[in-house]
Amino acid sequence: MTPQKWTLSDIPDQDGRCAVVTGANSGIGAIAARELARAGAHVILACRDTSKGDRVAEEIRGALAGARVEVAALDLADLESVRAFVNDLAADTTGIDLLVNNAGLMAPPHRTTAQGFELQLGTNYLGHFALTGLLLDRLLSRPQPRVVTLSSNAHKLGKIDFDDLQSERGYNRWSAYNQSKLACLVFALELDRRARAAGAALRSLAAHPGYSATNLQSAAAPLTDRLIMGVANRVVAQSAEHGALPTLRAATDPELEGGTYVGPDGWHEFRGSPVVVRPLDRALDLETAERLWEVSEELTGVRFAFRETAVPWQAPSVR
User: Fold this and answer.
1) Largest alpha-carbon pair distance within the chain?
2) What pTM was estimated for this model as a whole?
3) Which end of the chain is flanked by fewer CB atoms within 10 Å, N or C?
């Protein structure tokens, strides 16, 4: 018998849970926020562009009577903004049940963050590393906290270049993107190891949307790339609605263990139904994970309250 495909109807009741979704002003983040709200969660849309976030929140309220959604300013390219977001959140929120590290950008021309980090590494990875660490107490105050960090199929092409982490010797926008998404996956798995070693209830999972048609392909890349990817969006990509399913399954499926990576089940994981997939072996290297963690703490100034002991990652069974 063919296993039943996971769908939105499989999302369990989220009433009483508070979720933070970064980059929820469009694409997969907006869809994830909507479906979490539909399931009863109180959802905080953490957005750099709060005017776009407000429009999404209004759309959700218009479609879902009684939806509990709010918008908060968060610029992951500025660690001061990350700290301000957490401080403001702490004043209004007793705890966070779910953090979805979704926001990101892909293949822009070379730029740097407010703290001087290469923009993609700083936004896609380091900003989320800092955000998660600063929210850790709020997460651990809840009985079943969960963190979902978005990676990408592009992690398979990535390499963590510790000798030139910020691409100062030479910038290739795609290599920098691949590195940032590999870093996100390494972080998600290492966070789960450290939570387990500390005996914490926190589950850390990762997800990727396959090739999904969102504004990620057009928000930052140069014109030529945008034109090529626009054609690919129409020919190859699945919809953003389908692309959001791995994130939503990772965020809500009670049977998924920490350390799970969720992606589409189709050819090369480009599209399809959300299942447990295996990361590239490079993402499982414990030495890389430990070194990246230490470097990230140094760069961001954020330290997690987990001890250093790590245990090898075991691949969950594919469903």
Assistant:
1) 54
2) 0.90
3) N
